[in-house]
Every structure is written in C-alpha cells, then in structure tokens.
Acyltransferase (Asticcacaulis endophyticus), 367 residues
Amino acid sequence: MASAAPKPAHLNTLDGLRGIAAVSVMAFHWHIEAGSPLFQHSRLAVDLFFLMSGFVLAYAYDDRLKAGLPFWTFFIPRLIRLYPMILMGIGFGAAWFTLDGLITGEQAFTVPQFVMYLLMNLFMIPVVTWDQDIAMFPLNLVLWSLFFELIAYAAYGLVFAKAKTRWLVPVIVAGAIGVTGWLIFNFGASPAVPTGLGFLKQGFLADLSRIGLSFFLGVMIFRGLPRLNAFPSIPVVFLPMMCLLIFVQPEGSLNWWTCLFTILIVLPVMLLSAIRENITGRYGAVSKFLGDISYPLYVTHLPVMWAMRAVLHKLFPNLPIIWLGLIILPGCVLVAYLLLRSYDLPVRRFLSQKLKPISLNNRIPAE
C-alpha cells in the first residue's frame, strides 16, 4: 500500500531539482535566441517537471481522494497554485508584443488575432492547429505545459486517484509510444518528418503524450515506493551533476533512444534518489530558493528575456548576443524572485483564506 511509505512533511530535495529544471528550460530558450549549440536537450527538463508533478500530487492526495475528498476541494488549490502566475505570464507576454509592435512598427498579430489570443490564453484554451509554426499559447509559449498539467490534474482527481494502479499502465504505454515518435523526429538522425506525421514532431498529440507518460509514471512510482525503496539510490550530491550531463549537451550529442532511456529510467531514478534524502543547512537553503523561484521563473522568463534582449541590444548594439545572456538570465531570475515575494505568495495566501475550507490552505510537498 502507498500509505506505508514514509512521508516527511516536505520533500525539499525536490525543490532543488525543480529549480534546476526551470533554469534549464530558460537556458533552452536562450539557446534558441542566441544560436548557442548547447542546451538543446534541456527541453527534457519539462518531462522531469511532469514526473515530479505526478509524484507529489499522488504523495499529497492519493489517500485523501480515495477516502472521499471531493474533487473541487482537491482541484481548487491547484488553480490557486497555478493561475495567479499564469495571469502574470499572459500579461507580460501581451505587454511585450504590444510594446514590440509600437517600437518596431512590425505587428506579430493583427488586432483581432491579438484579442482572440488574449481571451483564449486567459481561459487556457489552446490554439490547436496542424501548422507547426503557430504556438498553442501565442502570447506566452510555455503555457502549453501548464495547460496539460491542468488536464492531468483533472484526470487524476476524477478518475485515476481512485483507480487501481494497473489502470495507469495503458496511459503510460500510449504516452511512451507518442513520446518515442516525438523523440525520433526531434533527436533522430534525420530532421525530415514523414508526411502526415508532423503532429508528432511538435503539437497537441506530442505534448499530450509527454504528460501522459511522465505525470502518470510519477503517480505509479509513488504507489510502488515500498518495492522501489529496495533499489539503491544515487547520492543527492550527484543529482545536479546528472542534470548538467543531461541538459547541457551540444546539439546532436544525444540521440532519440538515449533521450527515451533518460525519460523512462534516468529521470525516475533521480526522483527516487531525491525523495530519500532531505538536504539541510546551506545547501538546503539553496535548494529551497531554487524551488521557490522555479514556477515564477518558468512562467515569465520568455517575455522578460525578449524585452531585456531588445533593450540591451539598443543600448549595446555591438555586443555579441551570447554575452547578453550574462545579464539577461540573472535578470530573469531576479524578476521571478520579485514576483514571488510581491505578487505570487500574497495572492495565493489571499485566495486560500477567502476560499477556506475549500482550498485546504496547505502546501503539498515540494510545491
């Protein structure tokens, strides 16, 4: 039984992993902006996010939902956790595209498109299209993963929390098949995509496969802890080094099956190792800081990065773009921290108080 697993109050080693994953995603997007050959594989950090999310949700809610906790009592705290920063991220994205159009005179969207995308983004409605050049959430590209997180939360709370563990197997297998296709097209030997299968390279079904595999694999790992605890773990001091070896790799250094092995084996081993040892002291404080800023950083880094790059390029037109990262990336972290302290935490506390007892007003492990 999952309830037999030891359950400390907070899994603070996971905080550090979440922070490293958020920084890695930011580095991946900077890799695209700067044309750097590094960080191409940092997109796998999102799969680590999904894996940890499934684990900590099951850790916090499996027993309570099985005991009859109402769905909305579970789901509303998830909305309180995610939505304030989602709104801030949309606001940052809308402000950036507006200012960019005013400054450069080039409009990324027509006015009707902008209004439509703004409304869709606010209600977390994705733009689903076969055109790979149109993002699901045009005003802030990273919202795609939060949309699928909300879908996974709903599926877990309504169905899978009370379902037998074997029900997770077909979801995980279907997700693994889709993820394999996504990896082949993105990390295979040839970038060419067979006609009719472009949706596996990038798009709704590829992203649905990623959340289906990793999120529910995280749920299954929690439920299998009594057996999995018999396996040896990796000392937590090596986990940041493993993240570097996975995420900071030149483009093309990892092929599709290496990436699949990483998602199916390496990331779960890292998760299992992280939950067995809670770091304390100075390193524990660093881990907590990384965990605290991880979500605000993830949601806001893209529009902040774009705006800072535009300003710095105007101020220092001859400075190579790669060197701008020495200012821009720490700047994104600073903005995330300021938003955490001045906006995210106060708003969540306010909403939790207003929505008592529905909100439960508690923090789940490693959140």
Q: What stands out?
A: The CA atoms of residues 106 and 334 lie 29 Å apart. Residues 1-5 have pLDDT under 50 and may be disordered. Residues 281-315 form the longest helix (35 residues). Residues 2-354 form one domain.
